[in-house]
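WARN no homologs supplied; continuing
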Amino acid sequence: MSTSEKFWDRLAKRYARSPIKDMQSYNRTMERTKAHLAKGDRVLEAGCGTGSTALLLAGNVAHITASDISGNMIEIARAKAKDPHAGNVNFLKATVFDETFDGRSFDVVLAFNFLHLLEDLPAALRRVNELLTRDGLFISKTLCMAGQGWYWRVLLAIMRSVRLAPHVSFLTIDELEEFVTNEGFEIIETGDYPASPPSRFIVARKRRR
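OK structure emitted
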């Protein structure tokens, strides 16, 4: 089991009990996400946590496969999904590299508060591109912490050294968007929800080859 998997498994119950800290930014993110979804869409959410966002968006699409590396997170999400109105959501312990996902299987891939936790962001974005249908959309929101103080970098480095924290990238907005465009996407909408520290909302369309 990886350090990241252990970390999120330990955190799962406390994470599920924690209220959303900035409801205004969350609501704005959901509003803009819904604007790009269609009733017939097949959606993959990467890093779904305990499933609240997948369940919230379920009524706007045909089907959501919500995945997370943490088995404990997925167990909590499945318990929430016992509501009969959540019949079009499937929770799965997996990463985007899972072999059960076929190429060009999804119209939309979602990744909220997730990309900065990936050790190999380009590879993950490349895989997302493979999973999307022609003209498919990648919708993400990512904490960009490059402007944060040295204290956080040192603290996380220490915690990582004793396997108590997952990988965290301190990205700028420009770096994040360059990663996205370099892996075959055209960015069609952006926003910061919230603005400080910036959580960059990006809607990107898969470029035709």
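The CA atoms of residues 81 and 177 lie 33 Å apart.
OK
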